[in-house]
Design brief:
By secondary structure, the protein is mostly helical. About 85% of the residues lie in helices and about 0% in strands. The chain is built from six helices and no strands. The chain is elongated. It starts with a helix and ends with a helix.
Length: about 140
């Protein structure tokens, strides 16, 4: 009897979790794609930086912080929209959709996923061979 009473909520929760996971996966693929493309286009720049004495860790940090800056900008715009459209979100969800803890947790999760998605392009940028990068083109 109690299972039937909450069956609709379970299905709704499951669908929301699956769609949220899918959205997170698509966001991570997008961040990875943008950063991989950016690193590919800037390979010569990274080669010059390394040739002039920049450390590989410095190049890694440069690419990582660039990605996190873009993610932080998107999260800021998203937070403004969430809190600006509070009544509409509340009418959709039937509850307060602006729980600060939930927004903070999702922002931290998105930062972690973006950092993980940026790791491989940043690693590739930090391992550019300066001589090969300067010879290309």
């Amino acid at each position: 009897m109690a299972d039937q009473a909450v069956a609709g909520q379970r299905v709704s929760t499951l669908v929301t979790a699956v769609l949220g996971t899918l959205a997170l996966l698509l966001a991570s693929i997008g961040v990875y794609g943008v950063m991989a493309y950016s690193v590919g286009r800037r390979e010569r720049e990274f080669g010059i930086r390394i040739a002039l004495g920049s450390g590989r860790l410095g190049i890694f940090k440069l690419v990582l912080f660039e990605a996190l800056r873009l993610v932080a900008t998107g999260m800021t715009l998203g937070a403004v929209l969430i809190f600006g459209m509070r009544t509409w979100v509340a009418s959709l969800l039937g509850a307060n959709g602006t729980d600060a803890l939930a927004v903070l947790a999702s922002a931290l999760l998105l930062c972690g996923v973006a950092a993980l998605a940026t790791f491989f392009p940043a690693r590739r940028a930090s391992h550019v061979d300066p001589m090969q990068a300067l010879r290309s083109e």
